[in-house]
Amino acid sequence: MMLKEELEREYMRSGHMGCPGCGVATTLRLVLKVLGERTIVVIIPGCHAVISANYPNSVLKVPCFHSAFEIAAPTAAGISNALKIRGEEGINVLAVAGDGGTFDIGLQSLSGAADRNEDFIYLCLDNEAYMNTGIQSSSSTPEKVWTMTTPGGRKGRKKNLMQIIAGHRMPYAATVTMGKPLDLMEKIEKAKNIRGTKFIHALVPCPTGWRMAENLSAKSAMLAVESKLFPLYELIDGINFRITHEPQGIPVKEYIKIQGRYRHFTDSDVEALQKQVDEEWERLVEKAKSCI
Amino acid sequence: MKTLLQGNYAVAEAVRLSRVQFVAAYPITPQTPIYERLSDYELEGKLKGVMMRTESEHSAMAACISAALTGVRTFTATASQGIALMHEMLHFASGNRVPVVMCNVNRVVAIPWAFGSDQSDSLSQRDTGWMQFYCEDAQEAVDTVIQAYKIAEQVFFPVMVCIDGFFTSHFLEPIDIPEQEMVDRFLPPPDIPNRFDIKNPAYVGNVVSPEQYMVFRQKSFEDMEKARGVIKRVDDEYREIFGRGYGYLEAVDTEGADVVLATSGAMTSTARVAVQSLKDKGYDVGLLKLRTFRPFPTKEIQEALKGVKKLAVLDRNISIGKEGIWCQELKAALYPLKERPTITNYIAGICGADVSPEMIEEMVINTLKREDAPELPVWVRRDQ
Fold first, then answer.
1. CATH class of B249-380
2. Binning pLDDT at 50, 70 and 90, where does residue A292 land?
């Protein structure tokens, strides 16, 4: 359980430059509430970078480094190693990257850092496209979804990143979303107390890119979980799966019908997606069953 | 006492003596022995700190930058494709004003694939805001690495120390490895600010406006100009303690000479033999060894080439569509002079192709014979 103090404290000031209803801002705010003031944040190009600071201002109350696109992980590793050399202990290093910076351009350097089990938390703020440059498809964009570079819908399914993460045997990985804030904060609390590379995959609603009303961010995040489309679970040492929230099994249609990026979906598209979601869920349940 | 060592191992010795705290590296020929020897030191406890075995040169430089921003002394080494892959991070390092020191072991850049020495890999990183030093031999490399930390940590620019692949990097040379105690006297323990102080939180690398961006660039430019004095002071101090110093450049009998030969890197040693032979034959010839590429020693070059009629510039690199890179820089440096030498550019030793003293002698004599400088560089190959 979260302490009242953790829920109330803030390490993001007001005045961020995100769009109304931005899931990135809310998610980062929740994460920092848990990590607290003994935290150094590494960000890379993406919405989270642009909304966090314009010289000489910063919305973050903790030290932050705006690094380059493909190097969130090695940048964080450089800092955490340097802290070790300097004998400064008990400082969290948080690497924040979007889906572009994680699924695509930063995957190699994340793999390298995870392989060495460098000590930091990697937070992937996944809004399923390059939103900062204006809604272009990434390998996290779901199949057939509209973006500016896939006007006829993206070909190929969203990359299964957690499978790749599992191959690295990280001590801790988890999926989270702002739709389930307490679950999110408890997982960050766990990650905070584990040494090594911790990976947090956050599904982050983006009203602008998802073509959705700005008051629907929390709802869409919640529907993603409850429809089993984005299950919440933990993955320990790349082997042990633990589902942290039993979804209600709301039809996936309820999730996609509030988003314009799915507007062109036919009934058979919806049906196919529902089938995929159900199959993926069953696979996850099987994996979780066989775990200790 | 002198030790017989490969240049790469000599560089590793200098890194150890500089009490580097953080190394991040990735293997690439012909740099790899530096990385291997540093790994030995780590195992033997001779290198205290962290050794990060990254999955690319790009990540190696990324980690050096963030570790340096956190206040530790950092090192990496690379070559060829590695420095090319790092390119983005080279701009990043100088923009972040971190005192990272890197040894670049000069090697051609593909394609064609090859491995020999060629300065194009590092010279093409000219505008990334790094200081660049080109060493004639392994002894100079050792001394320059140690000097580099003292310079970098005063002026907050990254420093690249370049040696010729397979020549300087792999030849065995008798080298004077300084005593640790003496190095400690010269180079104080790291006192690099930690930019991520949790008690005084700051944001490093914000997005800025066009005007602010210009202010930062101008500041960097002005600071690099100020760094010239630091390079000189550090070199003088080093000479005082260790008996060796190198200056921005070395001018041997250049003033008023009929002809001067300008070289850099390992070819300078061959050029010394050629120049002596020409002197013995009665030629009035001088030698200009170029060491500092950035900041570029314009004033020192103008001074050294006063009254010189003809200049032969030897380049182990080529800028396709123009000429040798050192030649371009020398021409620009000499342009403001009313009386300046005619300049012939020789492209030789590309990819480590053989350059004999005889070939160099011929270049110098050809330069003397010419009435006018040729418009295009002269390519010199042994098989011609």
1. alpha beta
2. low
Contacts of A14 (CB under 8 A, 6+ apart): A59
From A44, which residue of chain B is nearest by alpha-carbon distance?
Answer: B205
Smallest Cα distance from A132 to chain B, Å: 14
Question: Residue A76 to residues A81, B135, B156, B206: CA-CA distances in angstroms?
Answer: 9, 34, 21, 17
> How far is residue B171's CA from residue B7's CA, in Å, rounded to a whole number?
6
Cα separation, B381 vs B99, whole angstroms:
39
Chain A, residues 76-95, CB within 8 A of chain B, namely 76-79, 81-86, 91
- Sign of the C-alpha dihedral computed for residues A131, A136, A137 and A141 taken in this order: positive
**Helix axes of A217-226 and A23-35: crossing angle, nearest 10 degrees:** 80
Residues of chain A in contact with residue B67, where contact means CB-CB under 8 angstroms, are: 78-79, 81-82, 85
Q: Is A190 on the interface with B (CB under 8 A)?
A: no
For chain A, give the mean pLDDT. Answer: 96
In contact, A184 and A244? CB cutoff 8 Å = no
All structural domains of chain A with their residue ranges:
4-289
CATH architecture label of B2-242: 3-Layer(aba) Sandwich (3.40)
Topology classification of domain A4-289: Rossmann fold (3.40.50)
Confidence band of A121 (pLDDT split at 50, 70, 90): very high
Question: Closest chain A residue to B60 measured between Cα atoms?
Answer: A74
DSSP element (H, E) containing B77? strand B74-78
According to CATH, where is 3.40.50.920 located in chain B?
A: 249-380
For A:201-260, CB contacts with B below 8 A are none
Lookup: tokens for A182: 């307490």
A115 CB-side CA count, 13 A: 12
* Shortest CA distance from A53: residue in chain B: B206
Residue A2: pLDDT band (50, 70, 90) is: low
Handedness of CA B154, B155, B156, B157 (dihedral sign): negative
Nearest to B276 by CA among B264, B289, B287, B266: B287
pLDDT (tens digit per residue) in B174-231: 999 999 999 999 999 999 999 999 999 999 998 999 999 999 999 999 999 999 999 9
Alpha-carbon distance A114 to nearest alpha carbon in chain B (angstroms): 11
